[in-house]
Amino acid sequence: MRFNFDAKSVAIALAVAVLLVFGIFPIALLVIDAFIVDGHFSLDNFREVYVNKSNLMAVWNTVKASGLTMLFSTAISFPLAWLVGRTDLPFKNVFRTLIITPYMIPPFIGAFAWGYLANPRIGYLNQWIRAVFPFFEQGPINIYSMNGMVWVLVLFYFPFSFLSISRALEKMDPSLEEAARISGAGPLRVLRNITIPLTAPAIAAGALLVFVAVASAFGIPSIIGGQARIQVVTTRIISYVYVGTTEAMHEATALAVVLLMLSIAVLWFSNWYLAKREYFTLAGKSTRPTLVELGPWKWPLVAVFAIVCFVFAILPIMALVMTSLVKTMGRGFAFDNLTLDVWRSVLADDATWRTLRTSLYSSVLAATGGTLVGLLIAYLKVKTRMRFRTIPDFLATFTNATPGIVLALGLILAFSGKFGLNLYGTFWILVVAYFVRHLSYAVRQAAAALEQVHPSLEEAALSSGASWLRLFKDVTIPLVGPSVVGGWFLVFMPSFYELTMSVLLYSSKATPAGYHLYHLSSYASPQSAAVLSVLILILVLIGNLLMRWASRGRVSL
Amino acid sequence: MKRFAVVLSLLLVLSTALAGCGGSSGSSSNPSSGSNTTTPPATSGQSSGSTSGQTQTASGPSGSIMIYTSIYPDIINLVSPELEKAFPNLKVEWFQGGTEQVTAKMAAEIEAGKIGADLLMVADPSYYVYLKNRDLLMSYKSENFDAVAVDKDTEGYAYTGVRISNVVIGYNTNLVKPEEAPKTFRELTDPKWKDQVVIVDPTLSGTALVSTYALSEKYGWEYFEQLRDNGAVIGGGNSSTETKLVTGEFKVAVILEENLLKVKDRGEPVDIVYPEDGVIIVPSPIGILKTTQNAEAAKAVVDWWLSPEGQKAIVTGWMHSVRTDVESPKGAQPLASFAPGAMKVNWEDLAARSGEVKDKFVEIMGTK
């Protein structure tokens, strides 16, 4: 028994140490720097930053955009996840894949796509609408507004809450619902009194992920918000960083602290909320939820779902494909203005494949490391009674809430060899950056899954004489396996196309695809950037399909 | 489990296939290729006795050298083979990003006490003033120094102009007739151009920082307030602003001449106005970092950039040469035709106030 305890502690301690060294240490270095002016402790940087009216406005905009995105994401996620997970909706597997496709599109490319679709003057959508209703002179859809920005943010960040909720729905112990049904409750009543309360942790976890992810997002706010004159905290931070002086870097960090505070507040709230209840829905019995029959609603709902999928997934991809095929952007999409030349040149370019390979390796490593460490940290939080057990989870969220660019600067400071470890300028700095930035997705995913595993299963294993390692390997991991693989993908995908940190951390030896994408969009042409993003999308989709096939449908996004 | 094995082997096959793709074409023209060279990178060992980089043989400098730059990758592709020819024993490595990204990276490296660059080629001249004031630039008077006709550090020889970018007005020829196109920056505040003007963000682009500074010095910050009230919009960096002009989302843009020349040559419907109230000329410098481990090579590369060969590469990249004996890029007006009326920029002042300029711009343009 003593040995069991030790193996567990060692594994968990290692996971926490990795997080501390690679995630917290670099950020701490920067934050400490922000408090030092001319070699003395000072609050001048903070005073400077938080007196500035534009910054306060930006804080408010961040709260507003993140809050609205969180609300709308949760509001659409639950019904969609319920339809896919708990009903006999036809084609639900296709819908399931389509609906989360936006997560596989790099957000800043998605923002460009929506710019092409819905800018008020020449957006494809607005042109079509005007063709049908000629009385509109401009618009009517203006993507460059707060509403437009929230719309795009919801599209790209709601998969966090969708995945979280649908996982919980699929795993739920159906006996409670069955009991309610047998006692005469209607489907809606069951939903309201049983299903929703039982999935509350997953709903909250998903909402939290959305909020934190949006608050630290940069691509969409900079592209959509910039033109709409909406400043958010991340875009302000980047402005400071790009001043390029040491002083401005400290001001950027001082401003980043507000994001960290926001995430602390949200995390604290969700811990407090979840601590009030105890959920175990996955016990050791057969768990195949009965599907709700939709009856006459079946086909209307298919139609609704199809429209939603079309707007969420197909439209932006269409915009990208259309862009990738035009000869000159000036003439738009016309049949005599189409060419495959851009595709040919991007496919023939050595750099395309080399950067994709670098991204593949670095994100596979980051995702695998993230899944392992994430699982242990989640285990520590959910399944042990150690003191301070929730702190590592919290720290992971913290590194996730740190804007990528700030994290990248911290990594440069910490791993240039000044403190013994020299990763800067190598391939490994990318792995570390992706790992640290996206770790919390794996933790959340694993924690949500572990929360549903009843302790009786582990107790059974332990009392049959299994060691902790054995228990972990043979009981815990198989039970949470599919969720954990889902978490792997959640880390893998944003790492695969990561842009913000890559732009600062790449080196001639290790150039990732995200940097190449950025470089194409800023220096080559929008067409070649569109080709590369379609290419990335295809690769990620193939990966997802392979995963599903290999696991016989149990694992997929 | 069998299926997972299949997937794993597929992945293996895929990655070897990808590796094959990378190696097959084998052209070393790309800036970020060259992973198969054996020369150690310049960034790796600051402390170790760095004699290897400084040995100079009959065939020119050897070792390796790292250039941080904001010049466009297509120009890097263009000059890489030329540099290889001129310096067969030298491995030239590049870090390429927007000026503001490069300076952010530099800021972190300065803080960490480990500057990775030997040579710096970013757009904004005021940044060199900043570096010089912090005593980070090496004094070097190139053999070609006297041939350079633009802004250069004639006191400390810390930096020299190496390429010239110009901020001008571009218009979409599908939507605006040449005779109707705006003649001046001032005119863009006219109701005639209501909601039709897109400008570049000075927090993202070094040249836009210069133009923002120059315009605010000439017309005061009211100019930007009027632009805003006239519905002018920030289009992001130069490239995304270029796209908004080309697609006709906006009729008129305040943007770099080189972007316009490039897309015009590609057949896009744009043309250039050299504003009568003054083109904003940005003579982007080159400078050697004091911390370089390979000063000989750095000096030789600076000489090359300022030579007629190096300058021709600049012109192929749609920028103007700093030498008078190299002609203008295709489709551009000669520098001499608009240089006399160009807006004056005080680089020292801008170096001291760049943060303030960005703040003020964001404060004005970022509110409705």
Automatic annotation (TrEMBL), chain A:
Domain ABC transmembrane type-1, chain residue ranges per copy: 59-270, 356-547
UniProt keywords, alphabetically: Cell inner membrane, Cell membrane, Membrane, Transmembrane, Transmembrane helix, Transport
Record membrane topology: Multi-pass membrane protein
Record flagged with keyword Ribonucleoprotein: no
One Pfam short name: BPD_transp_1
Homology family: Belongs to the binding-protein-dependent transport system permease family.
Protein name: Iron(III) transport system permease protein
From TrEMBL, chain B:
Any Pfam family the entry gives: SBP_bac_6
UniProtKB keywords: Signal
Source taxon at top rank: Bacteria
Segment forming the signal sequence: 1-19
InterPro entries the UniProt entry points to: Ferric-bd
Keyword Ribonucleoprotein in record: no
Biased composition (Low complexity): 26-61
Region (Disordered) residue spans: 24-61
Gene3D superfamilies: Periplasmic binding protein-like II
Record-given protein name: Iron(III) transport system substrate-binding protein
